[in-house]
C-alpha cells in the first residue's frame, strides 16, 4: 500500500517539490559555506520523492549550537519558501477525503523543511 501511495504522491506533486529541493541544493553547493545545506537538501529531495515509509526523528545533535545556527540560516535562505509550498499542497489535499494522507505527508515535510538540521530520516517499516 505504501508503494501505491508513493507512486500517487510522485504523480500528484511529489516531483515538483523534489525539484524545488534539488534546485535549492544546487544553489547551496555554489559556496563552501552552503555545502552542508546542499547535502541536507539532497536528503530532503529523496524524502520528497517517496515520503510514505519514511519517519523523521530528532537526534541528540538537535539541541546543539551548530544545528540551531544552521537551522536559522536555512530558514532565512530557503526553508520558508519550501515549507510554504508544502502547506499549499497540504491545504489542496485536505479538501478531499482521499487526499488526507497526502496532506499529512506534506505537513510532515513542512516541519522538516523549516528545521532540517538535527533530524534524521529513517525507514518506517
Automatic annotation (TrEMBL):
The Inner membrane component domain, residue ranges: 4-54, 69-119
Keyword Transport (UniProt): no
TM region(s), chain numbering: 6-35, 56-77, 83-102
InterPro entries: Inner_membrane_protein, UCP028777, YccF
Entry keyword set: Membrane, Transmembrane, Transmembrane helix
GO CC terms: plasma membrane
Protein name: Uncharacterized membrane protein YccF (DUF307 family)
Species assigned in the record: Balneicella halophila
Amino acid at each position: 500500500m505504501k508503494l501505491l501511495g508513493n507512486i500517487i504522491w510522485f504523480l500528484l506533486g511529489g516531483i515538483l517539490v523534489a525539484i524545488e529541493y534539488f534546485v535549492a541544493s544546487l544553489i547551496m553547493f555554489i559556496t563552501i559555506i552552503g555545502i552542508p545545506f546542499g547535502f541536507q537538501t539532497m536528503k530532503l529531495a529523496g524524502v520528497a520523492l517517496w515520503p510514505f515509509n519514511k519517519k523523521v526523528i530528532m537526534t541528540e545533535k538537535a539541541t546543539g549550537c551548530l544545528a540551531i545556527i544552521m537551522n536559522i540560516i536555512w530558514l532565512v535562505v530557503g526553508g520558508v519558501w519550501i515549507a510554504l509550498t508544502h502547506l499549499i499542497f497540504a491545504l489542496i489535499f485536505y479538501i478531499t477525503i482521499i487526499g488526507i494522507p497526502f496532506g499529512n505527508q506534506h505537513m510532515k515535510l513542512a516541519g522538516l523543511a523549516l528545521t532540517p538540521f538535527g533530524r534524521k530520516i529513517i525507514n518506517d517499516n
